[in-house]
Design brief:
By secondary structure, the chain is an alpha+beta fold. It has a domain of 33 residues. The protein contains two helices and two strands, in the order ααββ. It has a two-stranded antiparallel sheet. A hairpin with a 2-residue loop joins strand 1 and strand 2. The longest helix has 36 residues. The N and C termini lie far apart (84 Å). The model has no long low-confidence stretch (mean pLDDT 79).
C-alpha cells in the first residue's frame, strides 16, 4: 500500500484545500481594498460634484416621458 504522501487523490485534495484558502484570503483582501477605494472616491468633492451633475437633468425640473411631435420623448415637467 502507498502512503498518504504518494496517493494522487490525497495530493489533489491537499492542493485543492490550499488553493481554496488562498483564494478566500485574496477575495477578502480584494473586497476590503475595493470598499475602501470606493469610499475614498465617493467622498472626494470633485467626484461628488460630477455624480450630482449626472443625477440631475441639465434643464432642471423633473423629467418624464411624454408624447411630443408624433413620438415619445423625455420632457421636463416643472
Amino acid at each position: 500500500m502507498s502512503s498518504d504522501e504518494n496517493n494522487p487523490l490525497r495530493q489533489f485534495q491537499a492542493a485543492w484545500e490550499a488553493t481554496t484558502a488562498v483564494v478566500a484570503e485574496w477575495a477578502e483582501q480584494t473586497a476590503a481594498v475595493t470598499s475602501e477605494a470606493f469610499r475614498k472616491l465617493t467622498n472626494d468633492p470633485a467626484i461628488r460634484a460630477v455624480m450630482e451633475r449626472w443625477r440631475r437633468p441639465s434643464g432642471g425640473g423633473r423629467w418624464r416621458p411624454g408624447w411630443s411631435a408624433g413620438r415619445w420623448r423625455w420632457r421636463a415637467c416643472w
